[in-house]
Amino acid sequence: MLTNDDGIDSVGFRALYDGLSRVADVVAVAPRNDRSSVGRTMSHEVPVEEHELGYAIEGTPADCTVAGLEVLCPDVDLVVAGCNKGANIGAYTLGRSGTVSAAVEAAFFEVPAMAVSLYIPVSDDWEELATEPEDFREPVEIATFLAEHAIDAGVFEHADYLNVNAPYNTAEQSDVDSEGGTDDRLPVEITRPSRLYDMTAERNGDSIRLRDRIWERMADGTLPEPEGTDRHAVMNGRVSVSPLSAPHTTERQGTLAEVLEAYGSAV
């Protein structure tokens, strides 16, 4: 099952649909319109329409996952969300991203999932980049490979979902052979989400401007990312694959136990 948050008619969605169709039977269950950055927002009821690729939902990516797995195509082996125009990297973005949230929702159904995104450096002509299916070739190729091989290899016995981010790769950087394969695929790195955070807020009269400085610092190369993180990988021309778990994990902490013991004995 393929979903996304850019909308069912977005270029990246169709590119990934066509790529996955080479190795699997794909059913689209995706938002009718752009529902980016809505996180795991859920609706109580969503209209659904048949679409040439499957189904278009007037709802969020999380809505699409639930509707798809419960009603529209319950017998699926894998949920893939993407391909998103714009990266979903860094720990703080995971809860904001509609693309990632669709994969997280699938994990609670115990269905393997992938979120797939294309990193494009922030620039004045950002909107003019990645407008053709071929521009999404790098994330489509790695996602298609993982869809074909990861389940049988046991990858999802150790991860609930994979967060895949590929750098924008121009035609000059990589060539396509006559059969549609690649002569020079980008290297792939297993990563962890970066913990670096650079949100700022500035008051201007009756409004407050919120600004995420991470993206411009990535574009100008001033972000000091350590090796092994998702951002470091894409900034250095590598595809980032982060194996992640969906539920929040907890660990026994002695200090918290001591505090709560004091609470129980407090008068």
Automatic annotation (TrEMBL):
InterPro entries according to UniProt: SurE (IPR030048), SurE-like_Pase/nucleotidase (IPR002828), SurE-like_sf (IPR036523)
SUPFAM superfamilies, A to Z: SurE-like
Survival protein SurE-like phosphatase/nucleotidase domain sequence ranges: 1-173
UniProt-listed Gene3D superfamilies: Survival protein SurE-like phosphatase/nucleotidase
Domain of life: Archaea
Enzyme Commission number, as recorded: 3.1.3.5
Alphabetical UniProt keywords: Hydrolase, Metal-binding
GO MF, one annotated term: 5'-nucleotidase activity
Pfam families named in the record: SurE (PF01975)
Family: Belongs to the SurE nucleotidase family.
PANTHER family xref list: 5'-NUCLEOTIDASE SURE (PTHR30457), PHOSPHATASE, PUTATIVE (AFU_ORTHOLOGUE AFUA_4G01070)-RELATED (PTHR30457:SF0)
Protein name per UniProt: 5'-nucleotidase
Organism this protein belongs to: Halalkaliarchaeum desulfuricum
Gene from which the chain derives: surE2
